[in-house]
């Protein structure tokens, strides 16, 4: 869902280039380690929305570094404000298109990719825009480390079924699959970090679909 433009959010990003990158040149390599206070394993959320998930994750795991990748500048600005307000030195914001993932991150650069409530793009002619389409899976395969993982959540049954098929056809291995995440075992539910949309959908009684998957070709 596209947010209403907030000029203050755009200005905040422009004022803090040390914390947020706005559509950087994909031809120029980004030294991510130099942008964080400490060199630590990096995890990426693609399509971070207003940032509830990624900021909570950064708070809970100071031993890791996180990147919120969000194409909408207003949403990216909202995440940046949360980062600054909460003093999250282990969080960076990248306002850019996920189609250029390898250019922005390089190979074997991240341990985990989170895809939370991505746009389902339900029309067949828009299939290539889905974040679990094979061209995106190839990008993820390249940037993930050998033991890297994709964690995917959605309330859209059609997108979930499509993603299972797409990942299976790509030769991926499923470590966890749930068609009703909020009614799994107590420890699984307790460990789950909700996004803004997830809380909204789940409160209406909608099931939340979830999968964790990795790539079998570890020697890449």
Tell me the count of domains: 1
Broad structural category:
alpha/beta
Low-confidence stretches: none
CATH class: Alpha Beta
Helix content: 25-40%
The coarse silhouette is globular
Q: Which strands sit side by side, in order, in the main sheet?
A: 1-4-3-2-5-6-8-7
Quantity of strands, as a count: 8
Regarding quaternary structure, how should these chains be classified?
Answer: single chain
Question: Main sheet, how many strands, which sense, barrel?
Answer: 8 strands, mixed
GO cellular component, one term: tRNA methyltransferase complex
Protein name: tRNA (guanine-N(7)-)-methyltransferase
Catalytic activity: guanosine(46) in tRNA + S-adenosyl-L-methionine = N(7)-methylguanosine(46) in tRNA + S-adenosyl-L-homocysteine
Pfam families: Methyltransf_4
What tags apply to this protein structure?
220 residues; Rossmann fold; S-adenosyl-L-methionine; 9 helices; 23% strand; tRNA (guanine-N(7)-)-methyltransferase; SAM-dependent_MTases_sf; alpha/beta; eight-stranded mixed beta sheet; tRNA (guanine(46)-N7)-methyltransferase activity; single chain
Describe this structure as you would to a colleague.
This protein is of the alpha/beta class. The protein has helices spanning 7-15, 32-35, 52-60, 73-86, 101-105, 134-143, 157-169, 186-191, 196-203, and strands spanning 20-22, 42-46, 65-69, 91-95, 110-116, 144-154, 172-178, 209-215. The protein has one domain (7-23, 33-215): 3-Layer(aba) Sandwich (Rossmann fold), CATH 3.40.50. Helices cover 35% and strands 23% of the residues. It has an eight-stranded mixed beta sheet with strand order 1-4-3-2-5-6-8-7, sandwiched between helices. Strand 2, helix 3 (52-60) and strand 3 form a beta-alpha-beta unit. Helix 1 packs across helix 4.
């Amino acid at each position: 869902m596209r947010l209403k433009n907030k000029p203050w959010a755009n200005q905040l990003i422009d004022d803090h280039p040390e914390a947020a990158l706005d559509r950087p040149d994909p031809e120029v390599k980004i030294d991510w380690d130099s942008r964080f206070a400490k060199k630590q394993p990096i995890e990426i959320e693609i399509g971070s929305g207003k940032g509830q998930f990624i900021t909570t994750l950064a708070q809970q795991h100071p031993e890791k570094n996180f990147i919120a990748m969000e194409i909408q500048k207003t949403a990216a600005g909202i995440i940046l404000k949360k980062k600054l307000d909460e003093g999250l030195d282990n969080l960076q914001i990248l306002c850019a298109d996920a189609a250029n993932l390898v250019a922005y991150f390089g190979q074997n650069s991240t341990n985990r990719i989170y895809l939370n409530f991505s746009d389902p793009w339900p029309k067949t002619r828009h299939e290539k825009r889905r974040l679990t389409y094979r061209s995106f899976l190839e990008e993820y395969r390249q940037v993930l480390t050998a033991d890297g993982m994709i964690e995917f959540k959605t309330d859209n049954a059609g997108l979930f079924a499509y993603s299972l098929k797409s990942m299976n056809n790509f030769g991926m291995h499923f470590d966890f699959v749930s068609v009703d995440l909020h009614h799994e075992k107590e420890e699984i539910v307790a460990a789950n970090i909700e996004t803004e949309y997830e809380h909204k959908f789940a409160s209406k009684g909608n099931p939340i679909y979830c999968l964790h998957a990795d790539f079998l070709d570890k020697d890449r």
